[in-house]
């Protein structure tokens, strides 16, 4: 069967050929199901998707030339998929972008629009009615916005296949770089087909092309604007003729059991997510809930997009053993947008490899397997398997340009048909990153910037080349130091470690978020404990420790720490500092940056109103509670809180909004959207709405923005995912559960 599918893959030249072939073969069979909290299951068949793509393409072809870029701005749902294929069917380049808040500009979307040069943007009618694009960047405001859900399917009759081949760009995948300088990875139709076949082979997916056998089913909540969500969750099921069950990321973040229950209900064979999601499921589910789940059909649980922790593998496997989750289903993998997605994957149906190595030797760039030894001197690494067929992974010595032997750390470089064309409009970076050479090997390689090594033929990823901290000639991996720092005290949350030049020496700086509820008088003690832990485990003196406000650490949309950006903000005095310690250095001069310490917090009221009051009295009491909540959770001065001032101006970010929603939901027993504070954007509007809901009246508040829960929940998902990953397990449980 594998040879049949491989032969089919070789006959396909573009993604257009793929969907048309699947539509002809499977017709009215369901391709995707979107789980909507309000409207239930929303399916679309292969034939319907083909028709929708043709209709949208006909509209685009009348306005655009081949190869032009088109911005895709969609809430979670099926319309994004139709629009994405509509772009491919028109021969234009899709540019997925993050979704904006109704009343707030999204700088990243504007930067992507500007960098890509897109002059047309696709979205839904609901979005255009809700989001005032004139409040966005001038480039965004000047674009031609098209509501694809208003394009009639009858326009499919006007479609003509574009003159494209495998080299034609399919989409730009913008990486999670800085907001002001995003990089669009140019992914061609050929890149996509090659990587989809690589995923199929690595995952061991077998499917009867006639559709007579049980089809492969996947369940996914990952954002469609992310490579893992788009390629892993949307395109791979289509490629193998399977079925993909989708839900909004916020639906998972609000209640991870939704994801797990869907895997059970739809008898999913494949699903996956970044490392933090598996940790989140362990912390946010109870033994009695797990006992009701049946994961006997779940054959592959892929894990990638960020460092994979051995402890996560163990905890999830043990916690869901009662759900019949098999250890050999856990599938660590390594990938990046510059290689379309997958670059290496574990052996199918084999438990993950967990390698214990000597920490000191690893710092020197060598791998010594640790048979014994204390945890302080041992580092655990999870293997990511090998490269798929037709692809190559090598370890390059950064100085000699030669391949490293096994058990020697170097830069991971890649070769194969999945390697993208480069970054859009950045010739210099293309030459630097996509045309690397390895002595003794023909052809060019992609420089990933990641460090790793091979052990017994399996790839292990250790960190980022540019993030490595070199002090007194020794390499120190920042993620190791960060793990030590965070675990040193319960109040410490994820942070970033990096080096700065002081005089003529490199010095270590550690930046950590701290629990907003922690006693500020104990900050000095926390720093002392952290410094001691780093010194003991890494033999390093910390030059400076910076405690910053919770949820303010720069991270990417998948939760990866942006160390370079954190370092830049530290040097420029732009971190949201609550406390700082710096070692006295004789030869160093101060940067002159002044950092302010935030004021204290007032005690939080733990009582809301009863249902014995009228709307006005209830609203007043809720408003008073909201004021106390803002003082406590956001650290505001009561004098600065005004009833008609937007929550956004109080500094209420996406995660804080989710926290507020859950606390209100718990007190009132009224189901609320995760970001209800954006729908009712002031204390006065929100209080009125909640008062009416609490006593059973219909909401007639003119301040309310009528918006479906699914759309509200999906707003600013990039920030939500990043901030959730930046939380400690304890806070994730406290903020987003409230049940345990």
UniProtKB/TrEMBL annotation:
Q: Name one GO biological process term.
A: Actinobacterium-type cell wall biogenesis
- Region annotation (Disordered) ranges: 693-715
Q: GO molecular function of the protein, one example?
A: adenylyltransferase activity
Gene3D superfamilies per record: 3.30.300.30, ACP-like (1.10.1200.10), N-terminal domain of ligase-like (3.40.50.12780)
InterPro entries referenced in this protein's UniProt entry, alphabetically: ACP-like_sf, AMP-bd_C, AMP-bd_C_sf, AMP-binding_CS, AMP-dep_synth/lig_dom, ANL_N_sf, FAAL/FAAC, PKS_PP-bd
Q: Which UniProt keywords apply?
A: Fatty acid metabolism, Ligase, Lipid metabolism, Membrane, Phosphopantetheine, Phosphoprotein, Transmembrane, Transmembrane helix
Ranges for domain Carrier: 616-694
UniProt lists compositionally biased (Acidic residues) regions at 697-715
Name the residues that span the membrane: 80-99
Pull one GO CC term from this UniProt entry.
Answer: plasma membrane
Q: What Pfam families does the record tag this protein with?
A: AMP-binding, AMP-dom_DIP2-like, PP-binding
Q: Which family does it belong to?
A: Belongs to the ATP-dependent AMP-binding enzyme family.
What protein name applies here?
Answer: AMP-binding protein
């Amino acid at each position: 069967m594998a040879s049949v599918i491989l032969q089919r893959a070789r006959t396909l030249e573009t993604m257009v050929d793929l969907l048309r072939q699947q539509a002809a073969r499977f017709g009215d069979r369901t391709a995707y199901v979107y789980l909507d909290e309000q409207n239930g299951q929303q399916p679309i068949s292969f034939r319907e998707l083909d028709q929708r793509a043709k209709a949208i393409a006909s509209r685009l072809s009348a306005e655009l030339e081949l190869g032009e870029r088109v911005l895709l701005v969609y809430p979670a749902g099926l319309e994004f998929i139709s629009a994405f294929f509509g772009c491919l069917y028109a021969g234009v380049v899709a540019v997925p972008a993050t979704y904006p808040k109704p009343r707030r500009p999204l700088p990243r979307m504007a930067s992507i629009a500007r960098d890509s040069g897109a002059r047309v943007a696709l979205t839904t009618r609901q979005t255009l009615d809700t989001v005032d694009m004139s409040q966005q960047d001038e480039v965004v405001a000047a674009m031609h916005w098209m509501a694809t859900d208003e394009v009639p399917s009858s326009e499919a009759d006007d479609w003509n296949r574009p003159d494209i081949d495998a080299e034609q760009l399919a989409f730009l995948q913008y990486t999670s770089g800085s907001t002001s300088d995003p990089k669009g990875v140019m992914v061609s139709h050929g890149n996509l087909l090659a990587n989809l076949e690589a995923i199929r082979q690595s995952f061991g997916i077998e499917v009867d092309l006639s559709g007579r056998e049980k089809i492969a089913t996947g369940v996914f909540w990952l954002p469609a604007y992310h490579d893992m969500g788009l390629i892993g969750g949307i395109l791979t099921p289509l490629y193998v003729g399977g079925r993909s069950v989708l839900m909004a990321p916020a639906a998972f973040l609000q209640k991870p059991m939704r994801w797990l229950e869907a895997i059970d209900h739809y008898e999913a064979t494949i699903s996956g997510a970044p490392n933090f999601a598996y940790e989140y499921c362990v912390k946010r589910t109870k033994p009695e809930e797990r006992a009701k789940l049946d994961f006997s059909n779940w054959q592959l649980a892929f894990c990638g997009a960020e460092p994979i922790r051995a402890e996560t593998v163990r905890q999830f496997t043990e916690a869901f053993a009662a759900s019949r989750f098999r250890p050999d289903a856990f599938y660590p993998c390594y990938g990046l947008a510059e290689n379309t997605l997958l670059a290496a994957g574990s052996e199918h149906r084999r438990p993950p490899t967990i390698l214990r190595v000597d920490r000191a030797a690893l710092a020197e760039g060598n791998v010594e397997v640790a048979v014994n030894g204390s945890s302080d001197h041992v580092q655990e690494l999870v293997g990511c398997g090998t490269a798929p067929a037709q692809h190559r992974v090598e370890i390059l010595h950064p100085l000699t340009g030669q391949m490293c032997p096994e058990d020697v750390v170097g830069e991971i470089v890649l070769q194969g048909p999945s390697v993208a064309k480069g970054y859009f409009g950045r010739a210099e970076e293309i030459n630097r990153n996509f045309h690397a050479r390895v002595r003794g090997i023909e052809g060019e390689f992609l420089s990933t910037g990641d460090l790793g090594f091979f052990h017994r033929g399996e790839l292990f990823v250790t960190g980022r080349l540019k993030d490595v901290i070199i002090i007194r000639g020794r390499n120190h991996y920042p993620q190791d130091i960060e793990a030590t720092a965070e675990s040193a005290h319960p109040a410490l949350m994820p942070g970033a470690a990096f080096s700065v030049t002081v005089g003529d020496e490199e010095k270590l700086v550690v930046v950590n978020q701290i629990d907003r509820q922690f006693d500020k008088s104990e900050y000095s003690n926390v720093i002392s404990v952290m410094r001691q832990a780093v010194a003991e485990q890494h033999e390093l003196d910390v030059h400076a420790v910076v405690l910053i406000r919770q949820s303010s650490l720069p991270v990417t949309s998948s939760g990866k720490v942006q160390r370079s950006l954190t370092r830049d903000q530290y040097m420029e005095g732009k971190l949201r500092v609550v406390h700082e310690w710096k070692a006295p250095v004789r030869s160093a001069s101060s940067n002159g940056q002044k950092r302010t310490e935030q004021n204290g917090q007032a005690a939080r009221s733990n009582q809301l109103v009863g249902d014995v009051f009228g709307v006005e009295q209830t609203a007043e009491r809720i408003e008073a509670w909201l004021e106390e909540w803002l003082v406590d959770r956001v650290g505001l001065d009561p004098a600065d809180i005004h009833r008609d001032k937007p929550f956004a101006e109080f500094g209420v970010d996406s995660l804080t909004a989710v926290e507020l929603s859950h606390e209100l939901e718990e007190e009132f027993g009224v189901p609320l959207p995760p970001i209800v504070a954006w729908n009712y954007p002031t204390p006065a509007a929100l209080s009125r709405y909640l008062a009416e809901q609490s006593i059973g009246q219909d909401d007639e508040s003119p301040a309310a923005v009528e918006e479906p829960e699914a759309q509200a929940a999906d707003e600013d998902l990039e920030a939500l995912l990043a901030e959730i990953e930046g939380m400690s397990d304890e806070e994730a449980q406290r903020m987003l559960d409230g049940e345990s």
